[in-house]
């Protein structure tokens, strides 16, 4: 599937990797993989199946998510304000006040701006007692027109009042255990540096409900899923810049991470930038989705703490089949491309861990695609 992964990366060259676009990229990759597998199952050879799969998605320009622009204010306000100024100008003597025509603007104009821009007085002198009533009338007419226009735009384009947004933002509440160095977010509050909304059931694989319960793919998560959610950056911060040659410290780092009690066969001699380990005889009670989440989180944490490691090789077995081994190879460049940011010590803080987990790991299909690409066959 590496060729399809590289093809998807090519489609997104030059695109801004916002969290929404990263999620879109993973969905496109998943769809292409599914199509490729269907073509193989129908009897096509690999090369023809790859070619037809690529032809099904030659461009993402029609689906890429860009920053929306709201043009409703331009459509509703500009002409109305100008008409209001013209109408008000006919009701008084031009020898006394000549209002200046309004300039285009992008949104509703504050009261002070109406007075300054729409009704600037010429330098010629005029009796104040006759000028101010006219100016005040123009301002009131302008405000009335803007109010009616904004109300119409709100109904037409579905603009919501501020209290409606506040109500929606407090609908979902996230409670995360802070015992390992990560704070919890409560209703109506947002952590510093958090630029993305808290994930909801609609767009998240992992979700924490208002009671603090962890849900994975619509089902109540097991102990390992809770361990991944509760894992904070504080533990990883103790091992930042760990050298690969320090085998004892490397093993201590691995055992401090989720699923660390099953870590074994730690090997730091396979290359100057290669770390190898195994998770053996995992209990049957652990859900497969939770194991994948722990793998993805542990690999990410190691890459952040050990900037010189570029490849992590993992062997995994379960207690009911100790000889049935699964093999994974996680490469730094591939993992970093999914996050859209370099994984290093600069992310080992509250804002960085929020970006890693809530903005990426918890997103739908993120973990699944990351682990699927890393899974290899024994040679």
UniProtKB/TrEMBL annotation:
Biased composition (Basic and acidic residues): 169-180
Superkingdom as given in the UniProt entry: Bacteria
Membrane listed as a keyword: yes
Region listing for Disordered, in residue ranges: 66-112, 168-203
Transmembrane regions listed in the UniProt entry: 134-159
Keywords carried by this UniProt record: Membrane, Transmembrane, Transmembrane helix
Compositionally biased intervals (Low complexity): 181-196
This protein's name: DUF4825 domain-containing protein
